[in-house]
């Protein structure tokens, strides 16, 4: 039995519906996923024809790697060990049902101040003014403390009334006890932000931890299959 359209995966309690939602997530992310555009300026944004899910986070937090893990492709979104390499909004059409947006990283230290300001201004303007944006997945590295730039983005999302969900990345590199403490810390932080979802996702692109569940959550925002 499929859950009703738009039902949050975390609200499901029926085993049959949970299994159906996981399968729907698998099927969606196993479909075609094509890079369609990289926008370096707001005026270059493609028309909104699909619901959009954006991936935001500090440079080198693992946004591109997570997109690749979700779609089961190794090089769909280009990942780099060099912070700040993603310099544009990259749009990926997922099965003609959902648009994934890989955003420029924020908070990197090596880029010139003027370049950082330009990139971040575009990112912030996109978040404020994109009606088709359904949710921002805000990635935090589970190995390190929450940074001031992360807190600034949370406040911005509150002001813009853009729903965001925290995703902890690189959780395979954290021991279980430390990870549990990290989850508790971040959940307490999200309670202070009205735009934040009251839950978070614990993931590892290396081991696949949480990837199946995150696919199911995101599938709830997709258009129905044709």
SSE blueprint and pairings:
Layout: H1 15-30, E1 33-39, E2 52-57, H2 63-71, E3 89-94, E4 98-102, H3 113-129, E5 133-141, H4 148-160, E6 164-169, H5 176-190, E7 196-202, H6 211-219
Parallel strand pairs: 2-4, 2-5, 5-6, 6-7
Antiparallel strand pairs: 1-3, 3-4
Helix pairs in contact: 1-6
Shape estimate = globular
Helical fraction equals 25-40%
Mean pLDDT: 86
Report how far apart the termini are.
Answer: 19 Å
In the predicted model, the low-confidence regions spanning at least 5 consecutive residues are 79-86
User: Count the strands?
Assistant: 7
- Radius of gyration, Cα only, in angstroms? 17 Å
General description of the model:
It comes from Acetobacter cerevisiae. Keywords: Cell cycle, Cell division, GTP-binding, Magnesium, Metal-binding, Nucleotide-binding, Septation. Belongs to the TRAFAC class TrmE-Era-EngA-EngB-Septin-like GTPase superfamily. EngB GTPase family. This is Probable GTP-binding protein EngB. Pfam families: MMR_HSR1 (PF01926). With 226 residues, the chain is α/β, with parallel strands linked by helices. It has one domain (39-209): 3-Layer(aba) Sandwich (Rossmann fold), CATH 3.40.50. Helices cover 35% and strands 20% of the residues. It contains 6 helices and 7 strands; from the N terminus they run αββαββαβαβαβα. Strands 1-3-4-2-5-6-7 form a 7-stranded mixed sheet, with helices on both faces. Strand 6 (164-169), helix 5 and strand 7 (196-202) form a beta-alpha-beta unit. The longest helix is centred in the middle third of the chain and has 17 residues, at 113-129. The model is unreliable at 79-86 (pLDDT under 50).
